[in-house]
Amino acid sequence: MDITNTAVRSWVEEIARLTKPDRIVWLNGSDEEYAGLLAEGVRIGQLIPLNPDQHPNSYLHRSHPQDVARTEQCTYVCTMSQDDAGPNNNWMAPDEAYATLRPLFNGIMRGRTMYVVPYLLGPAGSSFSVVGFELTDSVYVAVNMRIMTRMGAIAFERLGDSPRFVKGVHSYGALDPQQRYICHFPQDLAVWSINSGYGGNALLSKKCFALRLASWLGKREGWLAEHMFITGVEDPQGRTTYIAGAFPSACGKTNLAMLKPAGQYSGYKIWCVGDDIAWLRVGADGGLYATNPEAGFFGVAPGTNMKTNPNMMATIAKNTIFTNVALRPDQTVWWEGLDLPANVDGFLDWQGNPWDPASGHKAAHPNSRFTAPLTQCPIYTPKWNDPEGVPISAILFGARRSTLVPLVCEAFTWQHGVYLGATLNSETTAAAAGATGVVRRDPMAMLPFCGYNMADYFGHWLNVGTRLTHPPKIYRVNWFRVDGQGQFLWPGFGENMRVLKWIVDRCDGTADAAETPLGYLPTLEALDTAGLDLSTEALQTLFDVDRDKWLDAARRQTDFFSKFGDRLPRTLLDEQQALINRLKEERRPRWKGAGPRLLRMNAGWSGS
Ligand code: OXD
Ligand code: MN
Q: Is the dihedral of CA 575, 579, 581, 586 positive or negative?
């Protein structure tokens, strides 16, 4: 390739001088090149070819057993001042970080190839889009980047002579967890990552650039980079309403993004624009527009099946890279959540050892993944490539909460919605290393991904709201509430369409809601529960607003807010106080509209 951009050339030379690779290979994104990279991955044992009939052009990768998830404790935001990174980030001064990293990178690529991966995040010709480069010694990273981004010549076309591109430097090093660093340098638009090959740590386009650096860029330039899916809901009349939704990792965001409407909803169509990241801008008409900067899915395998996500099952039927799933003797893949055949002889677990189900350990790692091109999704929409993005009518903030939080609740205003997002908390999952099932605050599902002080981030959200003449409605949703036996109350998956339908109708102004202290909840008539095997008690629990527990929860938000000191926007404290006041108000129902019946006549609120 003839590289005329001098800034790119001199940066690549500089990193090569430090890392000392045997060879430098500039990638152009072609099919032939991709085939060659896959063959190289097989040759060096990083990729195992799968059964070509069952999984055409697909491969399995087994990672180092201690390199299976994002490692937040090794992830740093290296702003000049610690306050700019905020209490939500690990911080290191840029000089100190470079001084730590340079010796680690010195000569690390000796005997290896350095791949230069040029890519564009966002559609060609779009004001949303930004160019990035990743320099990596991992062929696994290179092939995943080919799936996850618009990779190759398209990036050079966009860049021209400009020196403005995101500089990612990655080496899997020795995969040593003690020396693992993922360091972000917003001022330099740079990320340096060493000693991990795991997606979120090593595919630097994803969490590192498209969220951490992009959120920081968005703050400076007036846009938002969010951990959100983007989905269009087309009604039988052909009108499409776009929804964006933030959920913490491994909380069903991907399944919701490509939900398959069934039964009475089979006249509806769902269009998937993206499942993980949304870049949002205020449009000339004062609406909010979104684009998915990525070009592929990096989804969680366990639990994905024909019931939970038939569209994803079709998406990963070919050209897919699986990581840390189980392997059957016929070279097909398996994970928990797929039917377990009677005979598991010859199954290898995610580490390649014979698997004995009686041992109690899982065959696939709980955070095992697949990487597949977005355009293979049966409900992919060309809108994904629209330079203008898609207009967003509703934003969802969802989390995994077994208690307290109702199935769905609409914010009164944009700023109340920002408060609902800012106070999101969720039970932790296997997507990050550490204990699972522990409730932690995860504002806007961005706690691990916001590249600057979250107090400023909340302020930025509030500011964006002031520029929106018709802001999207904001919702908090929770599919994960359980009964006394720990069973999920709401069937979830395809049935979430019922909730989306209520939301779409609210956006159209045609669905009823009842006003509660938390926000607007659906009325009994407005949420379609026909044909669901839901007891009255289950329905009541799903919409229960326990006044005392909520008061307690609202007061406990102070601990979180106080971490941000004076930087926290006053508006959030006002919203917290307003919630507390509403919860303390006299026990009487407050109706909005022509007296619809409240879905949940909870003792705490209705007091009747
Ligand atoms: C992801 C994550 O990989 O959120 O998308 O961890
Ligand atoms: Mn994610």
A: positive
**CB 236: neighbour CB atoms within 10 A?**
10
Sorting pLDDT into bands at 50, 70 and 90, what band is 245?
very high
36-70 per-residue burial string, b: 16 or more CB within 10 A, e: under 16: ebbebbeeeebbbebeeeebeebbbbbbbeebbbb
Determine the average pLDDT of the residues in 410-422: 98
Nearest to 450 by CA among 422, 411, 429: 422
Q: Are 167 and 191 in contact (CB under 8 A)?
A: yes
Residues belonging to the active site: 251
The ligand with the least distance to the CA atom of 432 is: 1
Look at the block and give the residue holding tokens 């860049």: 159
State pLDDT tens for residues 431-461. 788 888 788 899 999 999 999 999 999 999 9
**Residue 476 Cβ < 6 Å to ligand 1:** no
CA distances from 276 to 163, 174, 281 (A): 28, 29, 17
For ligand 1, pick from 147, 276, 400 the residue to mutate: most ligand atoms within 8 Å of CB.
Answer: 276
pTM score, whole prediction: 0.95
Ligand 1 centroid to Cα of residue 431, in Å, is 6
User: Do residues 428 and 440 make contact, with C-beta atoms less than 8 angstroms apart?
Assistant: yes
**Short-list 94, 92, 98, 62, CA closest to 74:** 92
Q: How far is CA 267 from CA 227, 326, 406, in A?
A: 29, 37, 28
DSSP state of 531: T
